[in-house]
Amino acid sequence: MFGIFIDVTGRKQAEEGSELLAGEMSHRVKNLLAITAGLTQITSRSAATIEEMTGQLTQRLTSLGRAHDLVRPLPGEQGKAALLGDLLAVLLSPYEDTGAFSGRIRVAVPRMGVGEGTATTLAMVVHELATNSVKHGALSSDAGTLDVFGRTEEDEVHLVWSETGGPRIDQAPEMAGFGSRMIARSVASRLGGSLTYDWQASGLVATLVMRKQRMER
Q1: The pTM is what?
Q2: Which range, 34-48, 53-67, 115-129, is most confident?
Q3: Distance from C-alpha of 118 to C-alpha of 122, rounded to nearest angstrom
Q4: Are 177 and 130 in contact (CB under 8 A)?
Q5: Which distant-in-sequence residues (6+ apart) come within 8 Å of 157 by Cβ?
Q6: What residue spans define the domains of the chain?
Q7: Three-state DSSP class for residue 131
Q8: CA distances (Å), origin 44, targets 51, 157, 186
Q9: Which of 40, 47, 67, 83 is most buried, most CB within 10 Å of its CB?
Q10: Residues 6 or more apart from 199 whose CB is under 8 A from it?
Q11: What is the pLDDT of residue 162?
Q12: Which CATH number is 9-214's, of 3.40.190.10, 3.30.565.10, 3.40.50.300, 3.40.50.740?
């Protein structure tokens, strides 16, 4: 008897690779849909008109898109990352590019990479803080300035959002809304950290604490 042996190893590997890719794409799409749903709920609670909601939601989704664009493959099997400073600069660029705000936003953070999940969470945090600042804080005033700076402490990264020159703050606003709760949960679950607010008379100082080992995810 004669037999014929056909090596299908290459085809099998290709099929397995396609299945893994399809699974990864499905996972990413589900995550993005969940994020979009959450942002839509946040926007619906803060917008007064359909036009305002459309504008705010578009800004939020555009910020997330910019964050994902910055996340790029690293050599070998190191995963994906964007530089923290680049990410913050891109997320804040819509507010810096308007004429009255030019040169009033300063970013000085340690040079380090952040992963895709971290980029998404940071995009939500930054946009919420920036939106509040444009409406009520430093970026609502011609004399207002925003400094975003960071430092490392052992296994933590501390990112500080400091506003000055805006309207005087006499009373801390309530931060127990759905959006604030969702962001707090994202910071805790994804970054193993916390986001705290210090409403000083001269402006908001918010501090985001993140675990270094979580930031590459």
Answers
A1: 0.70
A2: 115-129
A3: 6
A4: no
A5: 110, 112, 150, 151, 209, 210, 211, 212, 215
A6: 9-214
A7: helix
A8: 11, 32, 19
A9: 67
A10: 169, 171, 172, 173
A11: 97
A12: 3.30.565.10
Tell me: pLDDT of 39 over 60.
yes
Q: How confident is the model at residue 100 (pLDDT cuts 50, 70, 90)?
A: very low
Distance of alpha carbon 10 from alpha carbon 44, whole angstroms = 51
93 has a pLDDT exceeding 70: yes
Following CA atoms 128, 189, 211, 131 in sequence, which dihedral angle do they give, to the nearest 10 degrees?
0
Give me 164's structure tokens: 């000055």
Residue 149 corresponds to which amino acid?
F
Instruction: For residue 52, give every residue at least 6 positions away whose Cβ sits within 8 Å of its Cβ, in sequence order, or none.
Output: none
Q: Say if strands 145-153 and 105-108 run parallel, antiparallel, or are unpaired.
A: parallel
